[in-house]
Amino acid sequence: MAIADKIASWQSAGLIDADTAARIAAFEEERARPTALWAVIGLGCLALALGIANVVAANWQAIPDALKLGVHFAMTAGAAFACWRSLDRGAVWFAEGALFVLGALFLAGLSLHAQVYQLSGEIWQLLVTWLLCAGPAFLLLGRTRLTAYALAGMTIWAGASWAGAANEESWAGLFAQGLAMSVPWALVALAALCQGRSRFSSGLSEMGLSAILIAVSIAHVAWADPIPEIDAGEMRVRLLVAGAGAALALALAWRGRLFPRDLLLALVTAPFAALVLAVGIEHGDGPVPRFIGALIYAAMWGGIAWAASRAGWRTVFGLAIGALAVRLFIVYFELFGSLAMTGMGLIFAGALLIALALGWRRIFSGFRKAGP
């Protein structure tokens, strides 16, 4: 709805008078930006960039290697200079854009050097090299969620690639996989150290916590499969390393008050405990382990919902209630198995899903009205 329509609806509802409506309209008109114009300009720039890329790609083999490397070096230096000048002038978003481009150029440069000098290796080696080259710039100069998400995403990708390439039959491989598992908690620890840049810190913590909660929720399915003692023992080695990262994140976030402390325990400690119980302890695949796993899942997300309600974190509360609703829907199929796929079973499943969605909306709406 356009702002003029909103102002008119507010005025007709008696929320504002005519003078207030006129002042709001004048204020919004002064702040209005030519969105359509900038959108057209953006499309033109995109077309220009694609055209240049196509011309270069068509003549790639004919371009001397020295020219390729020289142009890339000049572009990288230009992006670094633009980032520095923008920060010096206080143009945060221009600086963020230049820093993001600088990171992309670093990644492209690594690929270019590998092509020119006929280098080969694992994907994790490329990503770790990028983190060593561009990571410090992002960590020191990042100001908003844009660069925080980019740095966190590359770090998680590098950790996952490293874990996938590690030798699971050696202690070094288990240690490497444990380090990879600790990456999301390390992002929370970094967020606690970067609280002076609130949006950058928030981006790191959001990415870290999202990875933690998604990974632990997926690991919850381990309760449906048997885990022998040998597998549980190997997992405990990985968890020992990951636990050190979780402890560091908890200590730094607790000291820096990154989150309310009840919420911090629910978001950082409870998922790790649920992960240990799911994959670090020997169990079978019968109904009892599945039931225990469902209870642990409900306890984790229920604790997060309770802590979020106390802290007034509406989005986290809504996500927690939604996660519980989804798990309750899955329980229906677990209990009734193939019967749930019959005609009546699907009808009941549809009704249950609608009821859960409406219940989630009702609970979340009530919390929003009661919240600060």
Outline the structure in words.
InterPro entries: DUF2157. The chain crosses the membrane at residues 36-60, 66-84, 91-111, 123-141, 148-165, 171-192, 204-223, 235-254, 263-281, 287-308, 315-333, 339-360. The protein is 82% helix and 0% strand. By secondary structure, the chain is mainly alpha-helical. Among the domains are: 1-29, no CATH class; 33-62; 64-165. The longest helix has 28 residues, at 229-256. Helix 5 packs antiparallel against helix 6 (123-141) and helix 14 (314-336) runs antiparallel to helix 15 (343-370).
Structural key phrases:
mainly alpha; 15 helices; transmembrane
Count of helix runs: 15
Total strand segments = 0
SSE order, one letter for each helix or strand: HHHHHHHHHHHHHHH
Cα end-to-end separation: 26 Å
* Tertiary shape: globular
Organism: Pacificimonas pallii
Domain DUF2157: 9-144
InterPro entries: DUF2157
Protein name: DUF2157 domain-containing protein
Write the layout of secondary structure elements.
Blueprint lengths: L2 H10 L5 H14 L3 H24 L6 H25 L2 H25 L6 H19 L3 H21 L5 H11 L1 H11 L4 H22 L9 H28 L4 H19 L7 H25 L2 H23 L6 H28 L2
Helix pairs in contact: 1-2, 4-5, 5-6, 6-7, 7-8, 7-10, 8-11, 9-10, 9-11, 10-12, 11-12, 12-13, 13-14, 14-15
